[in-house]
From TrEMBL:
Organism from which the protein derives: Juglans regia
Composition skew (Basic and acidic residues), residue ranges: 1-14
InterPro entries: Leu-rich_rpt, Leu-rich_rpt_4, Leu-rich_rpt_typical-subtyp, LRR_dom_sf, SDS22/Internalin_LRR
SUPFAM superfamilies, A to Z: L domain-like (SSF52058)
Positions in coiled-coil regions: none
Protein name: Protein phosphatase 1 regulatory inhibitor subunit PPP1R7 homolog
Length: 338
């Protein structure tokens, strides 16, 4: 860790009476979160800054002085009023070429901004905007490790081929229908695609991914995860899945969420010896008797199970039966045991 990173952040008082927000000229971190600033005229920007956090203000333009902060590594403009025109100057600010984290989450963008100037970018966040296409991502540095484009209007996964080092891809709450163009993301650890319109699973050979979310899509089958032997967390709630299958090879799975589907029985998880959390609520599972055999591999390991809003949850001694099946259970539905 660099010495600068060990210094405490400067948190200024938004209720201060000073007309000018001052800071130590040698400060490396300036946090102006929730100051409701319309501009930065009252703010001093020390040239030593490595982090500038302008979250939750009322900024509609970028102060050109930001473009002179040659030491800046992290810039957050989250939850402001920045539109495409307002962010455009950043593509010409050569002094910021060493920026590692750029957050434009929750603004008024309709397209991916030009981030080609940043040669060491690790984190790029443009979630919660009105972006309709991923056009422009091809210009982003291949150093990127985390990409967030959730809650937009994107219809197609594209222009991500160069992100060989990408570890987190968040494209939830868009208009995607197909999982595609993921084959080069060989280091991907987390893939978040919830709240889209995806009908089938295509992981394009991503065998070592650890977390996948496809909640609230249009899946009717669980097929497609068989080769993901490193998978630890799988979230498939709120789909149209009628059968549990393709899970037996996922021996590292710790969390499985298949709630709010069309399941009538529990299958194909006998081999999941590491399973800790199992979410089966809001399905059509009739019997608790078959559950013992179905979860035989994880009986000792399981600590959380959700089965509420299934016919079997109305069985006499429902909770007591589950506590017998799972000797180390800590939570059944919303009930937590000491």
């Amino acid at each position: 860790m660099d010495d600068d990173e060990t210094r405490p952040p400067t948190r200024l008082d938004p209720e201060a009476d000073d007309t000018t927000i001052q800071d130590d000229p040698s400060s490396t971190v300036l946090d102006l979160t929730s100051f409701q600033l319309h501009d930065l005229d009252s703010v001093e920007l020390p040239p030593s800054l490595t982090e500038l956090d302008l979250t939750s203000n009322r900024l509609s333009n970028l102060d050109p002085r930001i473009g002179q902060l040659s030491n800046l590594k992290k810039l957050s403009l989250r939850q402001n009023l920045i539109d495409d025109n307002a962010v455009e100057p950043i593509s010409r600010w050569d002094a910021l070429s060493g920026l590692e984290e750029l957050v434009l989450r929750d603004n008024k963008l309709t397209k991916i901004p030009d981030a080609s100037i940043f040669r060491k970018l690790f984190v790029f966040d443009v979630s919660f905007n009105e972006i309709t296409s991923l056009h422009g991502l091809s210009k982003v540095s291949n150093t990127l490790k985390e990409l967030y484009v959730s809650k937009n209007e994107v219809t197609k996964i594209e222009e991500i081929d160069q992100f060989y080092d990408l570890q987190i891809l968040e494209l939830g709450s868009n208009r995607l229908r197909v999982m595609e163009n993921l084959q080069n993301l060989t280091n991907l650890q987390e893939l978040w695609l919830g709240r889209n319109r995806i009908k089938s699973v295509n992981l394009c050979g991503l065998k070592f991914i650890k977390k996948i979310s496809l909640q609230s899509n249009r899946l009717t089958s669980m097929k497609g995860f068989e080769d993901c032997i490193g998978l630890e967390e799988l979230y498939l709630s709120h789909n149209g899945i009628a059968k549990m299958e393709g899970l037996s090879s996922l021996v590292n799975l710790r969390v499985l969420d298949v709630s709010s589907n069309k399941l009538t029985s529990v299958n194909d998880i006998q081999n999941l010896l590491q399973l800790e959390d199992l979410w089966l609520n809001d399905n059509q599972i009739d019997s608790l008797e078959d559950l013992t055999e179905a979860v035989s591999g994880s009986r000792e390991k399981l600590t959380t199970i959700y089965l509420e809003n299934n016919p079997c949850a109305k069985s006499p001694n429902y909770s007591a039966t589950l506590r017998q099946i799972f000797p180390n259970i800590e939570q059944i539905d919303c009930n937590v045991f000491a």
